[in-house]
């Protein structure tokens, strides 16, 4: 696993030819590492115009990887995404967990220790019959008794009931806050149009509660 990076910041990349821009976040040990974004649109633009026609500037420095994703929410708003001069294609912060996993950030492991195991079990329990058949055809049927699927009790109603109780206990005492750009029609995770990341669960009065509230997250 990688060590914690030294620097965490929000950056802005500007196309010097047409002044279009891209805002992103980055963690690094070397401020001069030449990183120029990972978004599809900005990468295509750099390929088209040449990297020499782009400049990167740091617009906010933060103290940790987690703060980096929170800062992205503040800077990459829906208005930025809708701006015809922006290369950004989605509001910031909605996929920070996935991004932490992709960058192998140590904080992702901390998150997993709190909630990831429960999430993994819930995912296995949501497999369709076709997905289960595909799993079996890949060789799982032969050793089903020893696999994670049987260990987590997909076929055992008693185990599944314990899982439900464990999930309920994990969210007890928390409230759900909604991203300021989340459609008003989305009021719960089962709503049509719900996107992973539209909401977060926090304990009332906690530091996380204060951080997300300051970014415009509200309870519905």
Give me the secondary-structure topology.
Blueprint: E1 7-15, E2 21-28, H1 40-49, E3 54-62, H2 65-75, H3 78-82, H4 96-102, H5 106-125, H6 129-140, H7 148-151, H8 157-171, E4 175-178, E5 199-202, H9 207-214, E6 218-219
Antiparallel strand pairs: 1-2, 1-3, 4-5, 4-6
Helix pairs in contact: 5-8
Give a written overview of the molecule:
The radius of gyration is 21 Å and the shape is globular. It has 220 residues and is an alpha+beta fold. The chain has helices at residues 40-49, 65-75, 78-82, 96-102, 106-125, 129-140, 148-151, 157-171, 207-214; strands spanning 7-15, 21-28, 54-62, 175-178, 199-202, 218-219. α5 (106-125) packs across α8. β1 (7-15) and β2 form a beta hairpin.
Descriptors for this entry?
220 residues, alpha+beta, GIY-YIG endonuclease, 3 domains, three-stranded antiparallel β-sheet, 42% helix
CATH topology of the largest domain: GIY-YIG endonuclease
Pattern of helices and strands:
EEHEHHHHHHHEEHE
Number of helix segments? 9
Cα radius of gyration in angstroms? 21 Å
What is the CATH domain class of the largest domain?
Alpha Beta
Average pLDDT metric:
76
Shape: globular
Précis, in short:
The protein is of the alpha+beta class and 220 residues long. It has helices at 40-49, 65-75, 78-82, 96-102, 106-125, 129-140, 148-151, 157-171, 207-214, and strands at residues 7-15, 21-28, 54-62, 175-178, 199-202, 218-219.
